[in-house]
Design goal:
Blueprint (H helix, E strand, L loop, with lengths): L7 E3 L11 E4 L5 E5 L7 E4 L1 H14 L2
Length: 63
């Protein structure tokens, strides 16, 4: 059986006090990202390779 619904989880880089949280669903053919507090704003989607490149870059910029 193929998974058809996004499996959302809180990003490990989200704030601990829920002030800046995003959720990521990476169980489908596209990676989806949304704001935990304002899900009605929709979501961003990216190809898995593009998401991997973005997160690798973001790790080098983390302060």
């Amino acid at each position: 059986m193929t998974e058809t619904l996004p499996n959302w989880h809180k990003s490990t880089y989200s704030g601990n006090d829920n002030d800046a949280c995003i959720e990521v669903a990476d169980n489908l053919s596209r990676v989806r990202v949304r704001d935990t507090k304002d899900r009605a704003r929709g979501e961003l989607t990216a190809a898995p390779a593009a998401w991997a490149a973005f997160t690798a870059f973001a790790r080098t910029c983390a302060v």
